[in-house]
Amino acid sequence: MATSDFQRARSVEQKQQRRDEMLAAARKLALAKGVRTVTMSDIADDIGFHKSAVLRYFETREAVFLELATVGWVDWMDACVPAIHSSAGDPSRVARAIADTLTQRPLFCDLLGHAPMNLERGVSAEAVQQFKVIVLDQVDRFVQAATAALPSLTEADGRALVTAVCALASSLWQVSHPTEPVAALYRSNPHLGHATVDFAPALYNQSETVILGLLSRRLTPPSTN
Amino acid sequence: MATSDFQRARSVEQKQQRRDEMLAAARKLALAKGVRTVTMSDIADDIGFHKSAVLRYFETREAVFLELATVGWVDWMDACVPAIHSSAGDPSRVARAIADTLTQRPLFCDLLGHAPMNLERGVSAEAVQQFKVIVLDQVDRFVQAATAALPSLTEADGRALVTAVCALASSLWQVSHPTEPVAALYRSNPHLGHATVDFAPALYNQSETVILGLLSRRLTPPSTN
After folding, report:
1. ipTM above 0.85 for this complex
2. Based on the domain organization, do B4 and B91 belong to the same domain?
3. Which end of chain B has the least Cβ crowding within 10 Å, N or C?
4. Which region among A11-20, A62-71, A171-180, B178-187 has the lowest average model confidence (pLDDT)?
């Protein structure tokens, strides 16, 4: 669609459709080249709108991606909670449920790292509040599922677990998705091999480690001697 | 110093001194307002140079902060390795050694999150290589200390541990240092209380959990039924 074809959306339905188109474009571009590099102009160009049209819907690029992060949290829990429930009683399978549902969501893993560092700093406090309220609800869903599946875990353990797996997914995703020049560097320098990370097995192993650590603390208090 | 006072540094010593002044200014500004917001112009203004003078020493702001991250890794290991050694045999004290030495280095914790996400993407592949070589040496120092202090841990466990504590320190630091508008939001909304994090105890608890998890896997293989 040429920029000149743009007409202002009039109805509520039209406005919602425009908004959805912008979010879909942002999602597609971020999956292709990483959240960090996508600008408002990229989003506008992709759907054939002028940048000013996009700015009528979203105050900043951070607002676009914070909305995708919000949707991403609900979508992750919609998959993760039943996967945890069907793994009840088995720490390794619970870890697999958490890690697999994250691995299947590369954009969400990318967004997890950007949310506190970049996204929450580029929007209004009201937008952060809306985001936080929904995230905290999703965290509660996670905690309920994890403590039901592994009853030795306390509520605090469940919160620590979701904090840890999100930190690990976020960090491992960034490290395992370097820019092409850095990836080429790794390929040409075998002694940099330890700097490379295979995301899915690393996230699974780390998630299992955290669960085993939380369980071991409940079963045998750590030695203090 | 007024910008007009600037004279190009001629000797190797003068050049090193200029470079050190720029790094010191970047460190001071980043500690005061966070790595994310410090620009090359801020650094230049702080030391009374023109921005073009700073650009003769560092290709981008990312190059400045990648150098501070490099120095930060060596500085962390200089403190962490002896602290781990003096905690040998006690998982909780090893966790304390790791978490305390990170907590004492707020700029490094901030930089840890920025390195893969932002810093490595704003410099040449050569600069990334120099950074990686030094980081991998520091990781080796960590692994040797951790496996000596807790001999049930394998080398792979040591690498998983340093990956996890860096991911946790980075993520917890960002979450526990929101912008002032977001901090005000937390204070005024008690139901957002679970979104706030107290960095030092959270990092200690998470580090201990990961160590206990790694140890429990070595002592009793996880159940697969």
Report:
1. yes
2. no
3. C
4. B178-187
Tens of pLDDT, residues A8-17: 667 889 999 9
Inter-chain contact A136–B197, Cβ cutoff 8 Å?
no
| Angstroms from B194 CA to nearest CA on chain A | 7
CA dihedral A129, B173, A178, A23 (to 10 degrees): 0
Instruction: Quote the number of domains for chain A.
Output: 2
Q: For the whole prediction, is pTM greater than 0.95? A: no
Q: Do A172 and B163 touch (CB under 8 A)?
A: yes
Question: Which residues from chain A sit within 8 angstroms of residue B124, using beta carbons?
Answer: 181
Same domain, A15 and A113: no
Are A105 and A158 contained in the same domain? yes
Q: Do B141 and B199 have their domain in common? A: yes
**Residues of chain A positioned with their CB less than 8 A from the CB of B195:** 132, 135-136
| Domain around B85 | 61-219
Question: For the residues A147-158, what does the mean pLDDT come to?
Answer: 97
Please compute the mean of the pLDDT values over residues A62-80 and round it to a whole number: 96
Q: What angle do CA A36, B121, A188 make, to 5 degrees?
A: 130
Q: Locate B65 and state its tokens.
A: 């902060």
CATH number, residue B24: 1.10.10.60
| Alpha-carbon torsion (B163, B169, B172, B173), positive or negative | negative
Contacts of A224 in chain B (CB under 8 A): 90, 92
Verify that B50 and B77 share a domain, yes or no: no
Partner residue facing A164 (CB), from B135, B206, B222:
B206
Of B125, B135, B182, the CB nearest to A181: B125
pLDDT of residue A80: 98
* Domain shared by A153 and A186, yes or no: yes
Closest CA to A123 of A113, A132, A112: A132
- Give me the residues of chain B with pLDDT under 70, please: 1-9, 117, 194, 220-225
Fill in the DSSP letter of residue A34.
Answer: -
Q: Are residue A131 and residue A180 in the same domain, yes or no?
A: yes
Distance CA A181, CA A158 (A): 39
